[in-house]
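Bug report

Summary: structure tokens for Xylanolytic transcriptional activator regulatory domain-containing protein differ between web form and batch submission.
Environment: batch mode, default settings.
Steps: 1) Submit the sequence below via batch. 2) Compare with the web form result.

Sequence submitted:
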Amino acid sequence: MLCSSIGLDDIAEVCRREYEHLDNISSIKFVLISSILYHIFEESSMLGVSTELLAEYKAHAKLCRANVDTGLANLPLLLSSTATNVQGLLLGAFVSIDQSRPAVAWQLCTTAAQLCIAAGFQSVSASMHKSPEEIRLERILFWNVYILDKALCLRLNRGSCIPEYDIDIPAEFSFHYDDGATGVHDTKGITKFWLRASIAQGRIYEHLYSPLARNTPAETRVAHAKALAAECRSLLQEAKVHQEQYPMNEHAPILTEIFRIGEEIQLSVNLTLVYQAVSALDGQEVFKNECVEAARRAMRTHKRSTHLMRVGPYAKSSYINWTILHTPFAPFFVILRHVLETLSIDDLVLLQEFIESLSHALDVSNRLKRFHQLCHVMCEVAGLFVGVKLKLNNSSVTVPEMPQALDNVNDLLQQKFSIDQAPQEQPQRQYLETQEAPPPVVVGGDPSLPGMPLEWDPTTMGTMDWTAGYENILNLMQDELQILENYPNAGLF
């Protein structure tokens, strides 16, 4: 379905045609063929094949992925504005997202957008003398680039390279898809829904999260948020009917389920981002409850879809990279703040279950490991905070323990708030070494709080501020944490 969605209706014919000229194949066609084969082998690995065949498919997929990287590294600086070049760049971007490399995907998507604009794919006048089939392919490619661009811009906090005022073609396209069982499907309804969601994503960044939007008056941002929230709610309501239109993939039905679940989560994340941009403003209480409900919806949808990560390595990586990491996963941080404000045990458990689910997919990428560790550290400290507050309020409620707790986090917390132990002084040599070394990234505003590991690099998460408006989220608990030093019998450890 992925290849069909970008106009590659007969991939067998494409491969045969290019394999006849292997001695003189261009870098972009090498990327195109390698990307097609990569997706074929990865999808084939999900068919319940034998262990030996699975290992063979994964080895071939790994080789094809390496070939994609080689082809991308050898691409010329200037590419002609052809449909084949755009297809190659798009497939290269898809493979990059599969590898948790959104910055690379953004570079490829930006180049593809420049080729589309240079060729006039977005212009009615530029298509006047072209055949209907050429126009169909060009619009398939342009709108695919547009959809990917809007998601990556929100993910990386970068402006779109496709100006809306340059587009005068209808916001619709369709592609031929044969599911192998019921024949060719009409996809116009599906793609129209995709475009509406992407247009909303673009407006979320432009009106709420861009540098210009952050400097606009609060009243203006609230007005934009209300309009965008209405659109996002409408999309969520229509999603159930829309998802019934998805054609079944006879060869890899689990991919269709990943598409459906991922789409529902992304729509909830979009709504959360809209509400969060306003509820995080100083003095603004509007949308606060709605923001929490949207975040809960995203987290609960994820909770009921964790079985997808047990199907196989490719299903797991596809779900993580295209659902959890593809756009800013703000729901976690919204629920975290809500827990700190309300001491909600149910929501704390929701956070813990989210972290536990990600712990089974840490082999997907280092990017997920870092995100998981960030979430785990913050949830550990939030649990400590809730425990302190409940004890001070003489509550009998028990705070659930984090599953698979991070030993280094517990050690840091016990070192900071040790019970019946005097703080140990650091040797002078160690102090000097600490002064010479770069400081770790601190979770909160106080450098005495647990820090992230030295190898932590926020830029690898993308430059999007996933906790917009919550920069001092841990400062909410500073005063309460200090009380621990005066309560040696708190019994928290």
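Above is the batch result. After comparison, the two runs are identical; trailing whitespace caused the diff. The chain is about 60% helix and 0% strand. Confidence is low (pLDDT under 50) at residues 405-410, 412-493.
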